[in-house]
Specification:
The protein is mainly alpha-helical and 213 residues long. The protein has helices at residues 27-43, 48-61, 67-76, 81-85, 87-101, 105-122, 128-134, 141-155, 174-185; strands spanning 163-167, 170-173.
Length: 213
């Protein structure tokens, strides 16, 4: 199944009131983010068990502590369930922001593509029980847009023909990824700078941005 080959609206994402500071991220989070995005790409060719395991690891990296802990926090603290469920996305939004600011432009783009794929193609096909068990709901609009805005700025600095997503599910080049991120964020990327004919960026071959392998 080519996740990027279909058009779909994201799930409805309730807004959760913020009652805690944004997470603090560092270069170590960029390294961990790259590792998890690599793992996610590999999992897409490994079936649902591999995907769910990786999604849980992504949520855990973002601060999810398990179903029981989520329930207890919702009971014992001012944080409502929707706020707690968005904690991983607040983390990944900050990682995307730092990646963009640090010149890790490929990572900022890949975090967006992960969020976009999950919001538009994956979460809506999972039961609420499955989403609760892995700790990952679809991102709320403000976080989704923040991740997309960081990606627009980063992706604009990469060669438009570079394949930023090239997995068992399909291929997405930078030009297509920019279009997706612009549509979500409302931010327009600057036009590409003229590049020399001897560009070393990986070529897209004859694949369209949504080509299914």
């Amino acid at each position: 199944m080519g996740f990027f080959s279909k058009k779909s609206d994201p799930m409805s994402r309730p807004t959760a009131a913020t009652t805690e500071p944004l997470p603090t991220v560092s270069p170590a989070d960029l390294a961990a983010g790259t590792q998890l995005m690599d793992q996610f790409d590999v999992s897409l060719g490994g079936g649902s068990d591999a995907i769910y395991t990786c999604l849980e690891q992504i949520a855990t990296r973002g601060g999810w502590k398990g179903e029981q802990a989520t329930m207890m926090e919702a009971i014992q603290s001012p944080n409502n369930t929707a706020f707690i469920q968005q904690r991983p996305w607040r983390y990944w939004s900050e990682v995307a922001r730092l990646a963009n600011a640090s010149g890790e432009h490929d990572l900022a783009g890949r975090i967006f593509l992960f969020a976009h794929l999950y919001a538009t193609q994956m979460a809506s096909k999972m039961s609420w029980q499955d989403r609760a068990s892995i700790g990952l709901e679809a991102p709320e609009d403000s976080l989704y847009k923040a991740i997309a805005a960081a990606a627009v700025d980063s992706l604009a600095r990469l060669d438009r023909g570079y394949l930023i997503h090239n997995t068992a599910t399909g291929k997405v080049d930078v030009a297509a990824a920019i279009g997706m991120a612009e549509a979500i964020s409302g931010v327009t990327a600057p036009p590409p700078a003229a590049s020399p004919a001897s560009s070393t960026a990986p070529a897209a071959d004859d694949a369209s941005p949504f080509n299914q392998l």
